[in-house]
Amino acid sequence: MQASAVLDLKAFVPSKDYELSIQFYKDLGFKLNWQGDGVAEFQVGAYRFLLQKFHVEQHSANFMMHLMVENTESWWAHITAIDLPGKYPGITAKAPAMQPWGLRVLFLSDPTGVLWHFADRVGK
Hints:
The chain is of the alpha/beta class. It has a single domain, classed as 2,3-Dihydroxybiphenyl 1,2-Dioxygenase, domain 1 (Roll), CATH 3.10.180.10. 24% of the residues lie in helices and 35% in strands. The protein contains 4 helices and 8 strands. It holds the Pfam family Glyoxalase. It comes from Telmatocola sphagniphila.
């Protein structure tokens, strides 16, 4: 039994260059809900995370986010149409591919190195 109902859960995503990361997520199509002193809330669909002006290389290099989507191919089409890799040299952007654990995954890193897994269930 828990003490009270859970109302929200958000990850704090690190950023090496806070303003560049804000622009990256806006370009990707995430909605900037608000921005404060070193923290910004982004939303995609009904889900949110907090981008923070904080960077420790080992932490950032090992930070990952997982986003289940209906169709990774449409996200890949969007990423390539806006030339995200061209606009942000050094990021990782790998086309969706079936993974051994049964999900099709598009891998995308942000300018800090945070690795996003955009995943869908093929045939579901």
